[in-house]
Structures are given as C-alpha cells and as structure tokens.
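Students often ask why we bother predicting the structure of a whole assembly rather than each chain alone. The short answer is interfaces. A chain on its own may look different once its partners are present, and contacts between molecules only exist in the joint model. In this exercise we take three input lines together and write out one structure for the complete complex. Read the inputs first and try to guess which parts will touch.
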Amino acid sequence: MDRFIAGIPRRSALTGLGAVAAALVLAACSAPGGSASAAATSGPVSTDVGSGKITLSILVDTPGVAGTEKLGALFTQKYPNVTIKVSGDEFTNLISNASRTLSSGTVPDITRTSLGVLVKDNLLQPLDGYAKLYGWDRWPASQFASSRSNAKGSERGTGSLYAVGNGYGLTGVYYNKKILKKIGASVPATLADFEKSMAKAKSAGYAGIVTNGKDGGVAYPLQNLAIDYGGVAAISDWTNGKAGASVKTPAMIKAAQTIQDWSDAGYLVSGVNSLDTTSAPAEFAKGKSLFYTSGNWQAPSLQKSMGSDVGFMLFPAQSASQPQYAMSASESLVIPAKAEHKDAAAAFLNFIQTDSRARQITVDDFGLAPGGAAGAETPDAVGVVKDTLTAFAAAVKKDAVVDFLGNSTTSMSLTLIPQTQLLVTGKTTPAAFAAKLQSEYANQTGQ
Amino acid sequence: MAITDAVPSRAGQSGPDERSGIRRYPSRRGRANWAALLWVLPALIAYGTFELYPLVQTIRFSFYDWDGVGPATWAGLDNYAGVFTNSEQFASIEHAFILIIFFSVLPVALGLVAASIIREARAGVLGTLGRVVLFIPQVLPLAAAGIIWTWIYAKDGLINGFLTAIGLGKLATDWLANFSTALPAVGLIGCWVSLGFCTVLLLSGISKIDPTLYEAVRLDGAGRYQEFRAVTLPGLRREIVVAASVTVIAALSSFDVIYVATNGGPGYQTIVPGLEIYHLTFTSQQVGAGSALAVLLTLLILVVILPLQRLARES
Amino acid sequence: MRIPRREQTTNVLILLTLMMFTLVPLLGVLSTALQPADRVPTGFDAPWPLHWENFSEAWRIANVLPLMWSSTVIVLAVVPTAIVLATLAGFGLAQPRVPGGRFLSMLFIAGLTIPAEALISPLYYQMQSFGLLNNRLAIILPLIGLYMPFGVFWMRTHFAATPVELIEAARLDGASPARIFWSVQLPLARSALSALMILFFLWTWNQFLLALVLVNDPLKRTVAGALGAFQGQYSTNIVLLCAGSLLIIAPSLLIFFVFQRQFIGALLQGSDR
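Now the answer. The structure tokens for the assembled complex follow.
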C-alpha cells in the first residue's frame, strides 16, 4: 500500500506537507515578541489621591481577597472618593500570568506577584519616588531587600524598590512545649542543643522534626544550616541572583549532609515527602513531634489547634553569640507601569503599612508580621502569634533576614523541591545536590 | 482536553465500501465539484485560524530564545537539542510512554472484559447500570478526577484506610509521594477516567457483531474464552484501534491530572511532556524551549498513532 | 441463554468490582465533604454529624454560581456554532468529486493528534492581538476551531455512510445538494448530531487549561477552574475542596443521569440509522 500514506494518496500527502513547509518559511521570517517597552521612570509622584471618584483595582490571591477587602474598607473611610475593587486568582496563576496581565490592555492598579521577568520587561513602576515621599526609606532597610532589583532584573537586593507588602513572612521553628518538658530539655540556644533535643525526642518515641517535604519545606532548615556553617553573605548573594554567586560551597554541601544525617538518624518524621503545607501543621498538631520548621503564616492555625503547647523561635545558630537568621519575603504588592491610578495606589500601600488598624488586620487576617518603621506599634496578639511578631521585629532590627533559596530565579523551586525530595530519601548525594542547584542557577541567570 | 474524548468510530459500515468508509466515486470521471468546497469553508477558516496557524506559530517560536514578552533572540536548533540533553525533559517522554500502559492498555483490556459481560446481560438491569456507572468518570473534568484521587491516595486517605481495615496496614504508604508508586498511581487515575469510555466504545462495536456467530460457537461447545478469542476480538478490531488511539493520545499529552495530583513529583518521577511544556512556558518563561518540546510531542504522537491506524486498515 | 450459571455469576462479580472501582472514589469524596470544615481529615472516618453546610460554604468561596453561568454562556456560544460548522463541512467533504477533498480530510484528521499544550502560547498572543483577552470570546473562538477536526471527521463519516439509493432518488427528483442536505441527510443524522452535541458540551464544560491561560478574569472562566479556589498558597482546605468538587461535577452528573440513555445510546448508535 505504498501509494498511500495513512490512507491518503501519496501525491496529496506530499502536497500537503509542501504547503505546511511553505507556511513555515513564511512565518519564520521575523522574530516574535514586541520591542522592549521603554523603562518606566519614577515620574512625578504625589500623595494626592485627588477628589474625583476613583476606583482602585487590586488583584491578589484568592485567600487574600477577604483581608484585602477589609483593608480597602478602612482606606475608603479615610479617602471616601476612592472605591477599592478587589479580585482574586489562584496564586500560581497570578505568578505565571503576571507578565501577560501587566502588558495587556486592562491592568490592575495594584497586584500581588513576584518580580520575575517583570522588571526586565519594564512592566513595574519603580517606587523610589514614593519611598522618599512617604518616608519608607527611613525604615529598617532589610525588610525591603527582597523587593529591590537592578534595572535589568538580574539581581535583587540592590537597586530600585519595586514592591512593598502589608505583611512579611518569616521562617522559624515551632516547638512542642509539652514534649520539651517531658524530655527534660529547654528551648535550644545553639545548633548542637537543637540536635541533642531531637535525639532525646527520638529515644522518647517522638519525631524530631516535621517539615513539608512535598512542596519544599526541607529547604528552610537547609538554608538555615548553610547560613550557620558558612555565613550569610554567600547565600544572600545567591538568593539575590548576583552574578558569580554560587551554592556549590562547602557550607551548602555540609548543610545537605546534615539533612541527610538527620534523615538517616530518624529525626525526620516518617513520610516527610508526603506532607505538604496543609498536612504538615496537622501532623505537628497531633502532638507527636518536637519541632516543625515553617513560618509565621502557620501561627494562627497552630494557635487554634495547640494553644499554649506551642512556641516559636528562630532557627538556632552554631553558638549563642552568632545572630539567628530567618528567611523573609513580603507579600509583595506591585504597581504596574501601566496602572491608571498610581498615586492613589501608592497612598493605599502606605496606608496598609502604617495605619494601626490595618496592621492589626495583617496579623489577624493574613497571619503575617507587618513591617514599617523601627518604633512602629506592634499589633495585639497572643500566644505563638505574639512570639512570631516579636521574633520578626528582632530579626529585622538586626538585619538578620534573607530571601528564600527558592526565590533566586523565577523557576528555582522547580529544581529545589524535587532535589530536596531526592536528598532526604538518599537518592542523591550532598555534593551532587549542590552542583545541581548551581548548574540550574547558572542556566537560568545566563551565566 | 478535547482530544482525550474523541470517538472517531466508523459509523455503520457493512457495505462494499467498508474498508475506508468513504464513498469512492471515480475521481477522473465527471466535473470536479467545486461547490462542495463552499460547505467546507467556514469550518476550514475556524480550524485554520485557531488551530493550524497557532501550530505554525509554535514551530516558529521553537527556534527562538524568548521570555514571552520582550524581544526574542534566534536560537536555531538549541531548544530541540535541549530536550535530549536535559534529563528532566527526556525523562518526561519516557514517563509518557509508561503511562500508555495505564491510560491505554489497561482500560482497553478491562473495557473488553466489561463490554463482553454487558453484552451477555444486555437487556438486564445490571448491563444498563454497568455502562452508566462506568461512564461517570468521563463526565467529570480531569482536574476534578485528579483532586479526588489525590485525597484517596493520601497518607490518611481512602486506600490506606481500607488497607489498615483489612489488616494490610503494612502496605500503606503515601502513594503519590512514594518514588516507586507515584507514576503507576497517577496512571491508575487515567485508567479510572478512560474505562467507561473504552467500555462504551467497544460495546458499540460488539452490538454490530452478528449474534448468530456467538450462538454457533457456543453450540460447538466453546467456553467463554474461546468465544471471546474467536468472535469478539476479531469483530472489534476497528473499535479496539480507535479506543487505543484515543487513549494513547491522552497518555502522551496528559496534563490536567498530573498537574493537580503530583505536579511532577516526587523528585522527577511523574514529569510528563504536557506538564514540562507548561512549566517551561509559564513558570520559567522559556517560551522557545516549551514550544520545541510541544512540537516534538506532536511528532511523537503522530509517530505512535500512524502505525496504530495501519492496524485498523488491514482487514 | 446458554451461558452456564457459574459463568454468569463470575460475570456479575467482575462487573460489580469494576463498578465499585468507579464509584468508591466518588463516595469517598462525599464522605470527606461532610466532615467538619476545619478538620484535616485523618483516615477513613464515617462523618457524623453530617455537615451539609460545607456545600453552601464551598459554593460561596468558589463562586460556583457565576462560574456555572460563565460555563453556560461559553457552552451556548461554542456548541451550536461548532456543530453547524462541522456538519456543513462534513457534508461538503462527503460529496463526490470534491477537488482536494482527500487532502482536506487528512488536514482535519491530523488536528486530532495536536495536543492542546502545543497551541497554548500562540493562542494567547493571538487573542491578545485581537484584543480579546478579558473577554469570553478568547476561549470561545479557539474552542470552536479546536473542535473542527473531530466534528468534521464525525459528520463526514456519518454522511458518507448514508445509503446511496436515498441520495440518488432525491437527485433524480431534481433536488440540489442543499435541498438533499436539508430534507434527506439532516433528519437521518439525528443520532450522530446528538452524540456530537453531548461530546462538545462535556468538553466545553470541563475545559480547564485553555480557560486558565486565555481568560484573565477568573470569573469568566469555566467551572473546572473553580477547583483552584480551595488551594491557597499555604494550605488547602480538603473538606471544602471535596465539597466544591462535588458541586462542580453535579450539573454534569445530573444531566448525564437524566439523559444517559441518549448519551450512551447516541455513542452506541454506530450502526443505527
């Protein structure tokens, strides 16, 4: 049946292929994509939200809609001519659709997103002018570090300010007070104490540490260990995307080795790779594990489920005299370059960071720590939520916060998560782990 | 997407044109029927604009290094080479082939069993109930199927609960996070989704088999298996190929279920091309690389489907 | 029936097992949906008391009503249009002596093998250049195009298998192709058309990826997109997710049960004219 290709006479099939090829040649003539739009300059800034009726459109992730609407209501009380319209989308969609949403015809005035390629493609409004106007530049600088970027978008931590958040996430370790007491240990002050406590817990029949291996929770203790062993500068450069930064370092390899040692010693809760950010706190709340490495966003629900049995601390350093570091990133809200009401948007951003009722909402509804000036009033809180606020204030004051490993490039988490899963199951070696992270980094930062 | 549910069956062939189903008019005699093309035009415009032109565009994108918004730089065949050198992208293709076993072979086989049984119970309540119930998963969005099964496979989910209840608690594990069970677990979801479709399709074929053949074979003393091999199987050749083709396309281009259930994990165990394309295009903003993988996926599907179609033609 | 008793029993058992395989997951989801909403369900608990309010909660959170409305609008725009286009084209291609007819048929069929992922990027930019991104047309138009391969193939196969005698008779009476189409072919195509309508409805209602990417406003997407509402950045509410999933699949299931005879009957209609 050679006359036929898939039942079609050969002649027709070849004509068909020829047509397709011709179309290809025609289409291949020019490169896709538009020319880069001009960089948005800071331009004239003002605190004036005007007197005419304005509608500010804000796009956040779905769980944040309710809280943002409350913030909006407060703002409208102060500026009655401004109506706030909040819409929500799934978090992962927000991030992946961001570059298209912000370059399209209908652009929100404020949106929640991560910086990604947005800076490079000039889709964001630099906020330096507003920072000066509202005095944000006199606040502790480290809270804004992860929201700064150079003009090319290749390195963060320096350059113009592009985002602010009403609240900040902060990583740390939750501990079960009842178990600590039972094993006769106190809150660990050093890394060595931390490990000893886990060993004691294990022999008493408890799990040493819970973390959400399914969606990358292992990276938190890993990063803390790497900072403990090798200092913060190398990690900070890497998470900021700096040229020449590397994690293929003895410190990182040692950190990865420690994680594997903990896994081999049985300190990690069983089935760590099956726990995600929903099931991990539930597992910890069962009361059979000593530590849970996570962040302040879990505090409200742990307060509810564990009450006074739970406490929060920053990850210990090697010795009591060294600073304790935490990872932190803001719930970054940006003003798109094409936004219509930039001044009003900036006023809103200032309001949510400074107004005391707004800051209370940040704690109560978002479970996050508000930033702001050094002496800013800490919102009311109890129990472990209060612990996280205190820890945040202390860390920011000492500039002891860094960005997350997973934020070093737009898709680093696609590598970090599987690699940590391989690490805890012994399917990769610490050296190979570090090398893989570094090669992905090099690929994605074009080095 | 749509492709997963396609039912290209040969409606009602029993005449002399059975082989191709196209009426063969001698093409050299008589005037060419140009007017007929007018009927085809609207569909052709829709298809050309929204499927063919985008496909050509994808091929074009695949030769560039582009983040989707800014300017693009020529990359030649780099993106294609990348698929073969990048271990994750290559593994995704391997996984897609493994999924063929679960998305295609298994449901077709079980569908054959179910269809034969329903044929025998044809008018009965069980038969009708059977084909209705088995078809239910086809009515659901694939994403919903993924979510439903995520919970069932969970450490505290239905399957482990059941195993513990019957005393096999030792076998309990987090099926979707366990390196060795993740891919088969995901595959089983695909089987669940496609079983009803295969059953119904095969039933449509079985209903065309002359019942007297069954009678004859039973009279000769044949048991169930001989009856199956001698009458059912040969008569269903075309339908089996159709069911296989549709489910193989579903296996190779799977996205919804995996995105929702494992997102490629644990490690890289369940990465499939559809998911990798999504990651490259939307998460990493590497539109060129994503497009190259998409083109390769399309070619792969063609390469697998064409021989399958051949099987249907040999009668 | 000469089927021995024992075989009949095994038949029943096998079929029941397969049916259980199909149903148990759905029942599991139902039982989870009825648990207290702030619980992370541990294990296979029989829920008591039954928390029916989870459904109304999920309804509210996932914006189920606006999304169902959105899905309905999209279905009403896509399905009739696609059917009309596919039927006309199928009829045209089933005519004798169509120049390039075989090539066109192959062209349509080839579309069946193109995965949606291969088209997602360019479709996005195309809709952007048409200025349709925040409009449901951004999902409606591509879907119509994407249904053409299967639709044209399905209808062409049906029309081509119509008995020649009927066509000849009409032609001898002097009927034009359009007349033949309207009076002869269309009435005969009822079952093929219903099958196509049902399939197009299901595919559109359950559309996920295209809606996600092509339509910016989540409320203008399809009902399948509502599932994401329960998956936050930090946690997923499993109980509400199960309730939400059931709500979303309920209309399709309802329609399916009411029309199941036509649904499956139409798909089984292969040989009936």
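Check your guess against this: The longest helix of chain A spans residues 10-27.
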